[in-house]
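Loading example: each entry is read as two labelled lines plus one structure line.
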Amino acid sequence: MRMDALDTPVAVIDLDRLERNIARFQAYLSQHGIANRPHIKTHKIPQIARMQVAAGAVGITCQKLGEAEVMADAGIDDIFIPYNIIGAAKLERLTALARRVRLSVAADSAAVVAGLGNAMAGTGLELTVLVECDTGMGRCGVQTPAEAVELALLIARTPGLRFGGLMTYPSSPEIGPFMHEAVRLLRDRGIAVERVSGGGTAGMWHAHEHPEITEYRAGMYIYGDRYTLRAGAMQLEECALTIITTVVSRPTPDRGVIDGGSKTFSSDLLGLEGYGLILEYPEARIISLSEEHGVVDFSRCTQRPAVGERVSVIPNHCCVVSNLFDEMVGVRRGDVEVVWRVAARGMVR
Amino acid sequence: MRMDALDTPVAVIDLDRLERNIARFQAYLSQHGIANRPHIKTHKIPQIARMQVAAGAVGITCQKLGEAEVMADAGIDDIFIPYNIIGAAKLERLTALARRVRLSVAADSAAVVAGLGNAMAGTGLELTVLVECDTGMGRCGVQTPAEAVELALLIARTPGLRFGGLMTYPSSPEIGPFMHEAVRLLRDRGIAVERVSGGGTAGMWHAHEHPEITEYRAGMYIYGDRYTLRAGAMQLEECALTIITTVVSRPTPDRGVIDGGSKTFSSDLLGLEGYGLILEYPEARIISLSEEHGVVDFSRCTQRPAVGERVSVIPNHCCVVSNLFDEMVGVRRGDVEVVWRVAARGMVR
């Protein structure tokens, strides 16, 4: 089947580009001796996770237990969940998962560490716990190298837990002093820091500039999107994910409406102008979205589409698109080769 | 099971409030002799659609064919799709659906009408087509009453199609002159306008102020959200949908992080400040979202939560939340009564 025959809106992955993106970033990290631990939240597809591991990834990163369970079912055996796991229901699932795969998690408080320790007590398991460090993002994470040391010591002395290192996100140029100092303080106390985990697609080609970083978590590098393009981390001809839509209305000479909206692209702007890049009309602007409509301003375009014409959109943010589609269609040179179920989509817990 | 035992994040519907919301708006429309055709995109749950029809709705509104198919499977027999249906794949499904239920659609161009006519040719079916009018929103729709008349005439003379009236969205105070003029022009030509379909939850209590409107499409009135609250259409104690989350991090005295992010609430701002209202901490602000984290500023709160505390969030926009959860949990006075699958979730086509 040709991709032109797919009904719209449809999310399409260029398999040649996907494979090249996986190989290129793996080669870069391997060259610099940095372990690759891709974040599967971007694709949520076990088949792509297996491609990443086959290319050389040491394991994967999942943001939710539910994603990790899907990936474990698919045979992935080394999973990092850089998230504070809290509450009886999740801790029970975490323990079950720790029996099946090499598992590591992150924590940023004594309360979280206590919960993890209680869950592991009496199981005979030893869970690897990294300390999450807030190196400038202002989300989770301990606030100072001294706090990182304190939490590392708590992890190390909690039965059933093993201090596994430090993690941060994203690996911006500012992380250096914090990570350097935390590693130094820990080594001064005789504590080995076996992993320092950084991440982020925007800064992925700078991973080697952080001497502390031993592993890297990137997600979007497999697909690319407008955010990744603006960050300069990828080129347009490397973008592997497009959403094919149909122009369903041309109510005025300047205005068009496509059959993709916030239910197709999400409302994520990430500081960008507009909600996507239309490849056939790069001067057009997707100026507003409702759930099933994208309103496009074609006023800067000399050629303009007719009702029924199909247009391909590079979304602002590929990860959120993966959570909106039950299936992704893999194509090669315009032919449909595979339809992948987004098996870890919608795993809210 | 008590709702306190549900793992987070979880979307919870207060069934008492849901039932009251359905009854209250139905009573209002019935009192004014306006047909109720609720938009099911808000809930995407057949059981709730059946409650709406049982309360007196003449039928339902769906935005996508896939939603309509799910609802037809559930026994709903009168469905309006106010969307330009284009392309062979969708027209084939539309024809199949027209054999099963009383179906109507909207169109805003001759190209769309031609496609609908071709699809119906030779089927023996007669599809009801309303003309979509752009009365100020700037999305789809014919631009003038004269264009509406022209398209109505085209529909009326196309074999297999039946002119079914006019539709617009939203029913803001500005729609009056356009709709009045269009109806007058059509009647002058001897063309009956049996339906004039308006909609929108924000303006729902003003439906009776538009004498032209014969039916009303509202969606959000069943759940309510911050958008509906700001519009003054609902009160906080009527809001039926909350997302229960857990505080997973308190990295600084002012900052907290909850386990709901854009994958839980969506990134929709709709002109509001912040991404949701935390009921237990109304002065708190959800200042940013990543996919699985909501960053909360508690600086205006005298009491602040500890790690592990559960907080309930009224989202900005309830419709998009329904598309992010596979299940909704119905509770009554704190007890879990039912778990509904969001059966029409993710119907992108």
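Residues 15-223 of chain B form a domain with the TIM Barrel fold (CATH 3.20.20.10).
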